[in-house]
Structures are given as structure tokens and as C-alpha cells.
Design brief:
Blueprint (H helix, E strand, L loop, with lengths): L7 E3 L6 E5 L10 E2 L3 E2 L2 H8 L21
Antiparallel strand pairs: 1-2, 3-4
Length: 69
């Protein structure tokens, strides 16, 4: 297998590895933010835990990302 296919996706906030390989389709990932990238579960909880309409373990593909202060 090609080395590139074995690379894990990094969290865009903390840069830790996520459970997803780079080639994994974003539609089948959890904690993915459309237009921004992949978050790890810990960063997802820190950022979105106070949002009633968003739940941990769901994709953000239909939601907009929060404004960065």
C-alpha cells in the first residue's frame, strides 16, 4: 500500500491524529467541519458542547462553522 494512503488525518485545532485515514470520505467521518477540516473528538466537544443543535458524533457537513474570535 502506498505510504500516503496510510497517513492519519490530523485535528485542525490540536494537530493530534484522528481515527481517520486521509483517503476516508468526509461524509463518513464524525467531527468533520465542512470548509475547515477534521477535528478530534476532544476538540469537537470543547468547541461544540454548548450548542444544543449539534451533538458529538455527528457530521457538521450541513452546519456552518462558528466564527473565530
Amino acid at each position: 500500500m502506498n505510504y500516503i494512503l496510510k497517513i492519519k488525518e490530523k485535528c485542525i485545532v490540536c494537530t493530534d491524529d484522528t481515527p481517520y485515514m486521509r483517503y476516508t470520505h468526509t461524509g463518513s467521518r464524525e467531527c468533520y467541519v465542512n470548509g475547515a477540516g477534521q477535528l478530534c473528538k476532544k476538540c469537537w466537544i470543547e468547541i461544540y458542547s454548548d450548542k444544543d443543535e449539534l451533538r458529538v458524533g455527528t457530521s457538521l457537513s450541513s452546519h456552518t462553522q462558528p466564527a473565530i474570535a
